[in-house]
Amino acid sequence: MNPQEPLLLSGIQHFSFCRRQWALIHIEQQWSENARTVDGTLFHRRAHDDAQFESRGDLLIARGFRIASQRLNIVGVCDVVEFHRDPAGIELFGREGRWSVYPVEYKRGAPKASDADRLQLCGQAMCLEEMLACDIPEGSLFYGETRRRERVQFTDELRGQVAAILDEMRRLYDRGYTPRAKPTKGCNACSLKEVCLPRLNKLPKVSAYIARMTGEDAL
Prior knowledge:
The protein is elongated and about 80 Å long. Helices cover about 35% and strands about 25% of the residues. The chain has helices at about 10-15, 20-25, 35-50, 115-130, 155-175, 195, 205-215, and strands at about 5-10, 55, 60-70, 75-90, 100-105, 140-145, 150-155. Strands 1, 2, 3, 4, 5, 6 and 7 form a seven-stranded mixed beta sheet that branches. The protein is an alpha/beta fold.
């Protein structure tokens, strides 16, 4: 057992999108809502639903499935974990037959160019593999705007990126360090924009201001 406090698996997506955003949320405990975050919360509530376990013949659906990994020292919740009847799968307590494991993460928007969502889903699969002693080669991301699933292969490269991100998250978390802002186009849509104040990082240096006012080169 790792004696350190476990990190939240949801932080992988935050960290991949913006290291400063992750630190504001997970280290400084800062949070602010906007229309996107409220819509996302409602979207996930519908995904989790009240029924924690649903049976549809050869398909079992678990919602709001809590997961953890001692090896990675993280905890989290899967939106949906599907168990498909599969002779090559694993046994489940209280269920006949064998089952393969398939995680599904719900996102309110559209597919992203970055790997942020795929990394979060891969992290979920790595936790499930440890908990259930199985191999999970792929899962899916369901996007609210397209109403379609995007299949994600959990390659060695993607798994390596998850491990590297968690290692960097751990170092920053243990130091209590919040990275400086690096303004991007994504800042305008961030609910923490007024907390982060990314524009402050664009303020001119005092030496440059003096140079402009005096017409002389800054020392």
